[in-house]
Amino acid sequence: MSSRYRVEYHLKSHRKDGFVDWIKGLLATPFVLHAVSHDVDDLTTTQRVRSQYAEIFKDIQNLVANKIDFDSRNGQLEENDDTEVRYDLMGKSRLNQLVPTIGSFFTELPLEKAFLWEDSQRGISERRMVAPSFNDVRRILNTAQIFYFVDKRRKYHHNQLKLVTFDGDVTLYEDGGSLNSSSPVIFYIVRLLAANIRVGIVTAAGYDEPVQYEHRLKGLIVAVHDASDLTMEQKHNLTVMGGESNYLFRYHENDEGEFGFQTVEQGEWLLPHMTEWKLSDMDQTLDFAEKTLKSLRDRLHLPGETVIVRKKRAVGIVPGEKFDVATQSQVQVKLEREQLEEVVLTLQTTLETFPPARRIKFSCFDGGSDVWCDIGGKDLGLRVLQNYYSPHDPIKPCETLHVGDQFAPVGSANDFKARLAGCTLWIASPAETVTNLRRLLAD
């Protein structure tokens, strides 16, 4: 019988990814059928399991390709008045029917090849007691996306990939940390720039001045400044999009030896529909969110040290600090996982019915120790960069890759919206980011 925690966890639909869970379910059948004792011919069993797993991923690969074709043809019908043709293509792709929550795919995914590679590294088909897990599937999806871009580069001798964006915390550095000169990810970001790939850090950290970003990314900007193999144009291809999609900064340096991030005025990068948002609607949305957070702080009996922080384009609830008698020092107050989830989900659903919030876009997310409501979202952040770097021919989603750690809960993970604007890698640590970049840039 499952534990109570496991039962409750699986009932939390907002914490699950439908596509990953569906794949896990498909893999469960061959695993169960071949979860035999080790006194039989284990090599034969492994070969059979590997073959069945590979066949499943091949079928999923074909379903993804079919969905891309289906979505493309249906998209073309928006400009087609032929009712009969439109009727023929109405409905859903096979993958949409099987996984109703599935989003868009911007590239095909060589999933069979990715599985075989991951299996050779991790021995997935060798296991008899532990079925293919969420992390197994997540890594296979990442590997397939990397293989796609690498294969395209080798075939056409140039990068289809034009823009790579990163989340900050847990992606480039540890939660609450910074990018210092010893970080191994810096080497690969510089290599991306050297390959004429634009690089953007799209973070929820919302500062309207560049100095705070310069402090957190000091190791990176020093490395870019010192990189003798980078042209000035390549260096300028490093940007920071702060507050999800509210503040844009671009790397710059001058002849006096000064370097860092320079503010890009909103008039140079705002998307057309973002210019239509009224300041009053944004302010009222944040006012209402702040009022909701105060109510939740009282209702959930959160610690007295918990603080509500209001910024120009965001409002959040953070744990604060208290004096610990045992250590004789200030320590951060910890909010329980259930409290954070209750706050972010209540905030999200409450704002969805608030008229001013419906006239703009906003994002509510659980940062792991705090909860924030931002104006905009990471999908807009990516689209801003796609247009800013190439205003006359915007970078396409199939030419964009976003690396982040918060994709799972629809209502509380701010990287989730990035799936609307580009391809993604779902990582779990800065070390995993480095591993994936190394493979992405491999000769």
From TrEMBL:
Its cofactor is Mg(2+). Its EC number is 3.1.3.-. It catalyses: IMP + H2O = inosine + phosphate. GO terms for biological process: inosine salvage; nicotinamide riboside biosynthetic process; nicotinic acid riboside biosynthetic process; nucleotide metabolic process. SUPFAM superfamilies: HAD-like. GO terms for molecular function: 5'-nucleotidase activity; ATP binding; magnesium ion binding. Keywords: ATP-binding, Hydrolase, Magnesium, Metal-binding, Nucleotide metabolism, Nucleotide-binding. InterPro entries: HAD-like_sf, ISN1. Homotetramer. IMP-specific 5'-nucleotidase involved in IMP (inositol monophosphate) degradation. Belongs to the ISN1 family. This is IMP-specific 5'-nucleotidase 1. The lineage of its organism: Eukaryota, Fungi, Dikarya, Ascomycota, Saccharomycotina. The gene is TDEL0A03650.
